[in-house]
Amino acid sequence: MCGIVGVIAFNKCPIATNNLVKMVDLLQHRGIDDAGYLFFHTGLHHNIKVSFHQAFCDEKFKSLSPFLPSIQDKASIQEINSHDWDIFLGHRRLSIIDTTSAGHQPMSDLSKNLWVSYNGEIYNFKEIRAELEKLGYQFYTKSDTEVILYAYAKWGIECVHKFNGMFAFALYDNFKKKFFLVRDRYGIKPLYYQIDNEKLIFASEAKAILAYEGGGKLDYEALLEYFTFQNIFTNKTLFENISLLESGHYLEIDLVSKECIKRQYWDFCFEDSWCLKDEREYIVELERLFTQAVKRQLQADVLVGSYLSGGIDSSSICAVASRFLPYLNTFSVGFDLTSAKGIELGFDEREISEYLSYLFKTEHYEMVLKSGDMERCLRDFSYHLEEPRVGQSYPNFYAAKLASKFVRVVLSGCGGDELFGGYPWRYYRGGDNPDFKSYVQEYYVFWQRLVPNSWLKKLFAPIANRVDSVWTRDIFENVLRRANTHPTCEEEYINNSLYFEAKTFLHGLLVVEDKLSMAHSLESRVPFLDNDLVDFAQKIPLSLKLSLRDNPQRVDENSVIQKNNIRFLQTKNNKRIFRKMVSTFIPKEVVEGAKKGFSSPDSSWFSGESMAFVKEKLFCKDSLLFEFLDYNTCYELVSSHLRGEHNYRLLIWSLLNFNEWCEIYLRKA
């Protein structure tokens, strides 16, 4: 698990070298064990038509690469400044597999013509390596990075279809003068880029891209998107001209023709098409694939742990992992509920976590968050997250901080709900089979947003002329157009919903998971997103995931929280086949437990112990966010929450997060 960064020049203007080390250093939290730098002269655009390169190590890690010059040396600086470079690759390494210096990156093949800078884990790399060895390839490290290089050498960029794992990598082929940026199937590992006629800049985090030339500007259209969905559905970011490479895609750049092509190599496809005889066969196959997925993701040369809440997803992962790791470390976060009310009184799951730890014989650690903990971490949280995404995720920041004190790798239950139907109250049921346009409109209105749609124009009044051409309904429709545009029955409508959730909500969760874990130099793995398990789960008949006879009433998640307003949380009509599968090794009270999610009691805290902080940030007209959002509208919405009239906890969190983002990335010194 690492951080990658790079620059490619497209013409005779070479890359600027003055901020390259700074770009890499900004990702040091992603890789605390090593750093590497590669400069490449392709010979395409300069007087010297031959290609050559120079690799450097970092002075901090000189002992790991004694034969490489340190990039901080005066002689190295002179060498860098004496040539025109077309390509720069930078890398920060978090050593997980093959922790020796042999895993140093950027890494090349023996010819020094194929180079890769890679972030992630390929869990089936040993199988691919064995296949390549039979074909005559020799390996000199025990790392999965080297497998990527020789898999590309054998199969070209189509090698991505062989990789079962999470990854974002940059690969340069000097034989073909082609450069590739690649992101995994599901978007577990992020990869940002900025491109114009002169250059391409890319990195694992946007802040490294900003460092190349300095500064950053807000993307107004992305801001509208976020405050519509509490997420960004397109590949935009809050940073103008910085994009996020879509999951299951790669960029192919031809340095000769300067042609840049984006290709999609994989996508979700939910449909009832797996033809096993009966439910029991599905359960047996699901257990085999789930066990295989967890076992695959335990491989590491460092300590591996797991999050352990009281929910079914993390519990099932821990149950399986504890079979193979006798002293599994587990971690949970609870909440001080002294001032909580309504359904938030049930948000603390430490009691069931401790019981599960006892059953699975894990070494368990936990921490308790209080109302002031959100305020204390908000600056660091917003800096590392970079772009606000789904949910109130600062508890995840603390969970990663806790786990990082004991392990280098942690397993997460992310993805279980999206694969097996964890949110039945969200799924569109079809109604009277409307045409596609009507279906999109009804589903768009149905979808949860931060504020009522009628308030959105008022909220964005200060920048109305900058976003008047953006139709968030069209953005919503574009996601569904990649699914089935002619649903004819209830199953097809719900499978469309599962596709929608996987492409939007799950993707947002994965971005958050990566950023907040890597903020603490912690690798987070998601066993539910194993290729074989996903391929199977997508094809399981919908009737085995949830009851089609039950049509759960949608409850407005922004309504005032009361104990009697929790039907959507209490449903047990979700993930039916997964519940049956784990019922043999997880306690009944967990298997039959209501869907809760990992959430803090912020609705109560915002209108109670954290009220002064909320008012300080959101009732101050000088706050930077009010250059873009209407103060009076924010004041009215937030006040209605503080008076107990509405539950706008998600909006308040989003406003606080965005305000902090503005202070970090837009405030001029």
Can you describe this structure in just a few lines?
With 669 residues, this protein is of the alpha+beta class. Helices cover 38% and strands 15% of the residues.
What does this structure look like?
- By secondary structure, the protein is of the alpha+beta class.
- It folds into 2 domains: 263 residues, Glutamine Phosphoribosylpyrophosphate, subunit 1, domain 1 (4-Layer Sandwich); 238 residues, 3-Layer(aba) Sandwich (Rossmann fold).
- The protein is 38% helix and 15% strand.
- The protein contains 26 helices and 18 strands.
- The strands form 3 sheets. A 7-stranded antiparallel sheet has the order 3-2-4-1-10-9-11.
- Strand 14, helix 8 and strand 15 form a beta-alpha-beta unit.
- About 1% of the residues have low confidence.
